[in-house]
Amino acid sequence: MLDLWNNLHPLVQGLIKGLAVILVIFPLAGASSLAERKVSAWMQGRPGPNRAMVPWIAWIPFLSTFLRRLGLFHLLADGGKLLFKEEPLPGHVNKLYFILAPVIAMMPAFTTVTVVPFGAYLTGSGEMVPLMLANVDVGLLAVFAVSSLGVYSLILAGWASNSKYPFLGGVRASAQLISYELSMTLSVVPVFLWINAPGTAGTMSLARVVEFQSQPGFWGGTWFVFLMPVSAFIFLVSLFAETNRQPFDMAESEADLVGGFHTEFGAFKWSLFFVAEYSHMLVGSGVFILLFLGGWNPLPWVSLADLIGGLHRLTHAAAVVHPLFVGVLSIVIFLVKVLAMIFFFMWIRWTIPRFRYDQVMKLGWQRLLPLAIGNLVFYALAIAFLQKPV
Amino acid sequence: MAVIPLTRKPLSLVERTYVPAILSGLKTTFKRMFRPNDTLEYPEQRPAIPPGYRGVPTLVKDPNGREKCVSCQLCEFVCPPKAIRITPGTVPEGSGREHVEKAPQAFDIDMLRCIYCGLCQEVCPEEAIFLQNQYSLSGYTREELVNHKDRLYELGGTLPDSHYKWDKKKAAAEAGPAH
Amino acid sequence: MIQPAKPDLVTVNIDGQEIAVPKGTNVIEAARLVNVDVPHYCYHPKLSVAGNCRMCLIEMGLPAVDPATKAPVMDPATGKQKINWIPRPQIGCGTNVSPGLHIRTTSPMVKEAREGVMEFLLVNHPLDCPICDQAGECKLQEQATAYGRGYSRYIEEKNVKPKRTQLGPRVTLDDERCVLCSRCIRFSREVAKDDVLGFIDRGSHSTLTCFPGRQLENNYSLNTVDICPVGALTSTDFRFKMRVWFLKQTNSLDPESSAGANTTVWSREGVIYRITPRRNDEVNDTWMADSGRVLYKQVRTDTRLTAAKVRGASATLAAAVSAAAELLRAGGVAIVGSGRSTVEEQFLTRQLAAALGGVSINLVSRVGAGDGLLVSADRNPNVRGALVTGLVSALPSAQLAGLGAEIDAGRVRTVLAIGEDLAAAGLTAAQLAKVSVVCLGTHANPTSAAAQVLIPTLTVFEKSGTFVNQQFRLQKFAAAVPGPAGTTDDLAVLGQLVAALGGPAAADLAGVWTRLAAAVPALATVTFANLPETGLLLDPTPYAALPFVEGAGLHHSPAKA
Questions:
Q1: Is residue C538 predicted with pLDDT exceeding 60?
Q2: Domains contained in chain A, number
Q3: Structure confidence at residue A199 as a pLDDT band (50, 70, 90)
Q4: Cα B128 to Cα B158: distance, rounded to the nearest angstrom
Q5: Minimum Cα–Cα distance from A348: chain B residue
Q6: Neighbours of B94 (CB within 10 A)
Q7: Which residue range(s) make up the domain with A334?
Q8: A38 lies in a domain?
Q9: Position with higher pLDDT, C76 vs B145
Q10: How would CATH label the architecture of C9-116?
Q11: Whole domain around residue B146: which residue ranges?
């Protein structure tokens, strides 16, 4: 099977990979939106969406009621609605850029997915091979570089709308992203200082970070969240800001900017922004998990290899060590962690009120940035002290 | 007015990071997820209407089936959004109610305009118009949402009467002058 | 401030305010001059004083003089002359002013007296305000707010009296509401000179009724409804039609005769509900004839013209005006103006005649019997307006015999009829068929049926303008309601006709008045806006030689004219 895949033309491979990204991210984003509605409802003492139903399933007793109460079919209903709604194009907008903005929003969202490893399998020699669509050496750097492009879509949307609230939203989004990009980048530098021994060829690969957290022994299996809690904290806060999530959703800020950058957007164009936001969240969560929460390792100090080894010792089944099983298991573990992160995003959103814009700027420049620099200096000194050059 | 200056307790360093506050907030919302819902699921469940509720304005009859409105038009006058429109009319002789003299020929309440303020009920000297329990009102056309006299009486039904003012008046007139 | 006493002025002190009033003024009128309201029911400024309602009780005092020396007694506390207050209240309506009279209208005794009177008046009152037409303009309601108790101490059965008595063809009486003020009786006797009303029975059982075999059916019967301070007398026509607080009041004039009674038109949302007299002491006091009150019914009738027509086919106003102008330009034109048109319209008619050149102008006179009051013999309200504006120089005749002869002779080929029915004015159908008729009218009639060009216009109640009444008093009236769709203001139509025939461009009312003032020396200083509501008396001497048909009426004697 692997041969078949390897024999395919690179273009066809790329096409299949691209389709896979779309087919995974779109449903995940949709599911996230439903989860968002449900979680917010539960936190507010409401049942949440619980009306939509498909006729054939309605005939099944109990299950149909359960699914209806769960609001599962609202996903279909919402998707259908957004697809078939009239596409309004306000008369005062710059039409080309207005239509371009949501398309551009999708690009970084989908592109970053490709360089994020989402699982691994073990070769016969016990070597871990990460699963990712595009194995680029620069790894995290690519994620940062491409995801930063996402802000262009917001600025473009705000500017092309030719309307004051969207414009304000776009301006806020750009200023906010610039402010938090710095802290975010600085916060991950200690991680890479740590995994790249001085004097050796370094890497920015995310898979390498996971690998580092999968080593045996106490220090080897320690997730970076325990090793570098301040870095993790800064990265998490910046992540919220970068994804424009509450309490940092200055770009939308419906209380003072109507809908922010997407005020003039509707129907499918609007839903593209929506999907982009959720895929940013997904990618962001993935990166956070890879960096600080051990990637596809099930528990701290218990690596994937340990788990497989343990299972094999218990069952002695050959299937357990089969790369396919290991790969699927690692993906499941990773996905569970990502979904937990997504829940955390929502949890924060429905708990903390939105900051004022000046507070956002103050937090970014006067609190997080000095903290990130101090953190970097501290770890740089600590690492220099601990890891003497060989 | 006396001004009472209040000084806020200065925040400690930990408090100033807001982390404890955020954590306690997270705890609250998380616990809230497992509490039962407060929602009233409307079409299936109906709210209990408290006494004094102001629903759709209606016209009522007294227990003897007499139409109480005498078309004094005070409600029309007091109505802030001008939702009420009355065409006054004369009660014809020989109808048994000619001592009331006046009754509405037409009585329209435009429910698209009504703001349910209840001033009509408050101002009515004959206790003929009441905002009762109907709260769910919908229609497909504007005309449907103009309640005419027959519809208003149908909605209003009969309410108890503590005066029977006009019946007393008729009895007095039939008894004749006291001298 | 004490004003220097003129021989016919008397200085009185009302609630501490000094005012000089003419001798013979009663306290209610004197108090009115210093904006002090003395409540009353039976008193009416245009009727004799009866003094039977007792509502206008006031406290009265005169400066003290020493009986022996006739020297003023001074009050050492104030340094002014001491006032001897009469210990019991007096009625304001029956008390005429005398020098140095002091009046208190707000003292506790006065308030208590008024509250007592109010309570007695309401003892037998049925309190059926919800169905009472007087509600909103009822003196009982007004005074009860200031002097009523708010609740009744009367636990006995109230009196029962006849309700819905037809006093006459136009007046319905509810005896239970009557406060026995006798205004209606005095009006019938003193003004209408038709003494048909009176009280029967005694005490609480007193009842207003007509004399046996008589009815309140004179042409002024509805004035009793106007002056009734309560809801006892109601107009059968207006009864239960609309509450008065919804009605918009517009100052208007009674167009039924040259008496020019001032009126108020009461309308709501473009519908007129009633017409009542408006006080003008120089013209109609506070009265008007019943016949003038039903004229509003002509506003909404089936015969109302609402579409401009050219040779029977509907046309736009512009098309109708140009068709009319074409007919008029062809020559052989006779204009039939109207004594019912306003001064402004008559002036435009004159301009139209001037623009055409050499046309004959005819007016139609309407003469009936004058009743010596407010219906004069000349039933055209504005014949004098035609004289003042120079439209005509002689009084019109009833029949258009001269015009008929001209038509028969073929000298007149086009007749412009402005608000007049040519058939009613004596032209035969054959004569009408012989000429092209341009008709400006409000209602369908033989003339409008025969018209080549028909332009629907407005009634008196839908337009603004001025009339000159029998006293040569220039009076204005305002539009009470808008005209029905399809009608146009006469002024606009005439203005457009004049413009189409080469005259000055059409103008609005104010613009017409600017021209009118320039063209007519007698009106040189007048504009529509500055014309007082009570009218402006013009100089009648240039027309003294004309044989006006009016006899004597209220505030009008022919010898004066």
A1: yes
A2: 1
A3: low
A4: 10
A5: B26
A6: 7
A7: 89-386
A8: no
A9: B145
A10: Roll (3.10)
A11: 57-165
| Tens-digit pLDDT profile for residues B147-172 | 999 999 999 999 988 888 888 888 88
**Contacts with A336 (C-beta within 8 Å, 6 or more apart), sequence order:** none
DSSP class of residue A367?
A: I
SS3 helix, strand, coil % of chain C, rounded to 5?
25, 20, 55
Q: Domain residues of chain C, as ranges? A: 9-116, 131-138+155-298, 309-543
Residues 6 or more apart from C165 whose CB is under 8 A from it? C172, C173, C174, C175, C209
Q: Identify all chain A residues contacting B13, using CB atoms and an 8 Å cutoff.
A: none
CATH number where B152 lies:
3.30.70.3270
User: Does the residue B74 lie in any domain?
Assistant: yes
pLDDT, one tens digit per residue, over B101-113 is: 899 999 999 999 9
Task: Quote the minimal CA–CA distance from B46 to chain C in Å.
Answer: 38
H/E element, C440 = strand C436-441
| Residue C518 token pair | 């320039």
Q: Which of C387, C444, C453 is nearest to C415 (CA)?
A: C453
Nearest CA in chain B to C159: B177
pTM: 0.75
Q: CA of B178: which chain C residue's CA is closest? A: C159
- The fold adopted by the segment(s) C131-138+155-298 is Alpha-Beta Plaits (3.30.70)
Task: Tell me: pLDDT of C561 over 50.
Answer: no
What pLDDT, in 10s, does the model give residues B123-133?
999 999 999 98
Q: What are the distances in angstroms from CA C90 to CA A127, A346, A383, C13, C311?
A: 123, 86, 113, 16, 73
> Do chain C and chain A touch with ≥3 beta carbon pairs under 8 Å?
no
The residue type at A161 = S
B152 is a domain residue: yes
Chains that touch C (3 or more CB pairs under 8 A): B
Please tell me whether the peptide bond between A247 and the residue prior to it is cis, using omega within 30 degrees of 0. yes
| SS3 letters across C108-132 | HHHHHHHHHHHHHHHHCCCCCHHHC
Cβ distance of B33 and A42 shorter than 8 Å: yes
The beta-carbon neighbor of C131 closest among B76, B77, B100 is B100
Summarised one tens digit per residue, pLDDT across range C362-404 is 999 999 998 989 999 999 999 999 999 999 988 888 788 888 8
Q: Name the DSSP class of A363.
A: I
CB-CB neighbors (< 8 A) of B88 in chain C:
240-243
Higher pLDDT, C2 or C317: C317
Contacts of B39 in chain A (CB under 8 A): 45-47
Are B26 and A347 inside 8 Å of each other by CB? yes
- Hey, is the C-beta of A356 within 8 angstroms of any chain B C-beta? no
Residue C435: both structure tokens together: 């000429």
> Do residues A289 and A112 lie in contact, with contact meaning Cβ atoms separated by under 8 Å?
no
Can you give the three-state secondary structure of C368-421, one letter per residue? CCCCCCCCCCECCCCHHHHHHCCCCCCCCECCCHHHHHHHHHCCCCEEEEECCC
For B42, C380, C416, the CA distances from C426, given in Å and listed in that order, are 78, 17, 15
Q: Helices A10-43 and A95-114 sit at what angle, rounded to 10 degrees?
A: 100
Buried b (16+ CB within 10 A) or exposed e, A252-278: bbeeebbbbbbbbbbeebbbbbbbbbb
Q: What is the pLDDT of residues A73-118, one digit of tens each?
A: 888 888 888 888 888 888 888 888 888 888 888 888 888 888 888 7
Report the number of distinct structural domains present in chain B: 1
| Alpha-carbon gap: B38 to the closest alpha carbon of chain A (Å) | 5
Whether C157 sits inside 8 A of B100 (CB atoms) is no
Q: Which two tokens stand for residue A54?
A: 């498909």
- Report the complex ipTM: 0.83
Closest approach of A70 to chain B, Cα-based (Å): 14
Distance (Å) of CA C179 to CA C41, C118, C122, C198, C221: 8, 10, 9, 13, 19
According to CATH, the topology of domain C309-543 is Rossmann fold (3.40.50)
pLDDT of residue C15: 93
* Residue of B24, B28, B29 to mutate, testing the A interface (most A Cβ within 10 Å of its Cβ): B29
